[in-house]
Description:
Layout (H helix, E strand, L loop, with lengths): L3 H17 L16 H13 L8 E3 L5 E3 L3 E8 L14 H4 L8 H10 L5 E10 L8 H14 L3 E2 L3 E5 L9 E10 L4
Parallel strand pairs: 3-4
Antiparallel strand pairs: 1-2, 2-3, 4-7, 5-7, 6-7
Helix pairs in contact: 1-2
Amino acid sequence: xxxxxxxxxxxxxxxxxxxxxxxxxxxxxxxxxxxxxxxxxxxxxxxxxxxxxxxxxxxxxxxxxxxxxxxxxxxxxxxxxxxxxxxxxxxxxxxxxxxxxxxxxxxxxxxxxxxxxxxxxxxxxxxxxxxxxxxxxxxxxxxxxxxxxxxxxxxxxxxxxxxxxxxxxxxxxxxxxxxxxxxxxxxx
Length: 188
């Protein structure tokens, strides 16, 4: 069985490879940070499928966002406190913390994963970008996500698995954190 720690590390490495390619997303500055979620996940899936471990097992879907056949059903969210222009983004943390079923937050994704059938284990993954050093650190957001998901929503999460990568090309999205939590079907 492919462990979540390995998947998170491999996703982080794929993101760095995308960043190093220097290909900008649309009219944004070069680097991985500005990519939209669907475009980014297609690129990550392509990179993972080039590796022997994942060959032909990774697919992007509507639900889940990324499927590693027989291993993991993954829902992804992006956390970017600042836009490509360097200005603080409005409502950026809502992508994680909005605690209602049927919405597009990471908490909503946890609820969606609990209802998903299939043999794969389930996890929610956040790709976050910070300055070096962080002007707005993501750690309090991740802590808040855990508290709301478990204490308020009554869902069971595994321990946070996290990988850090620095020295990215983008002048605003200078470092990334990939954080993931296994979502267990049974409530706390």
